[in-house]
Write a structure and sequence with these properties.
Immunoglobulin-like, 5-stranded antiparallel sheet, 2 helices, 9 strands, 45% strand
């Protein structure tokens, strides 16, 4: 009986979610960066590594904000366009059996599709992504509410070495 014909054969999925990490965004309402070596937790709630991530308020050109450009309160930002750079620098301590061809994906605010880092080819428990992407947002009450009350969720993926080729 071939594997494909065996009703009890359950192949191992090649690409798996290693876990998720969160970044709080509240400091962005005061135009301060949010940086973290965020813990990555798997679906059982067990820590499976760390993810070095950050979100920085930036200019349209991706440069750091000058002191004169920083607004004191979220209300001062309403009705303007704001730019935020999401950085996914690296991960560490990933489980060896899943840390192959790793990548990270996330959705920022109302983006309908995921943004993904390029895959780090090969096998490493400590992949370096050095990923940066700038998002432009119209600052509305809904957006400031998002920054004050929501988190940015990063999903870390890798390939399972035990998967059938």
């Amino acid at each position: 009986l071939r594997k494909e014909e065996d009703p009890f054969w359950d192949p191992i999925e090649k690409e798996k979610c290693i876990g998720k990490a969160v970044l709080f965004l509240q400091s962005l309402t005061a135009q301060l960066e949010s940086e973290s070596n965020a813990h990555i937790f798997n679906k059982e709630g067990v820590e499976v590594g760390q993810l070095n991530v950050a979100v920085f308020p930036v200019t349209k050109d991706g440069k750091e904000l000058e002191d004169d450009d920083i607004k004191e309160s979220p209300e001062e930002l309403l009705g303007t366009s704001a730019y935020y750079e999401v950085r996914i620098l690296s991960a560490s301590g990933l489980p060896k059996e899943l840390s192959n061809n790793t990548f990270v994906k996330f959705k920022f605010f109302r983006c309908s599709s995921y943004t993904e880092t390029p895959r780090v080819r090969g096998s490493t428990a400590n992949p370096v992504f050095n990923f940066r992407k700038i998002f432009e947002e119209s600052v509305t009450p809904a957006f400031t509410d998002y920054l004050e009350n929501e988190v940015l969720i990063f999903e870390v993926y890798g390939e399972d070495l035990r998967a059938t080729k």
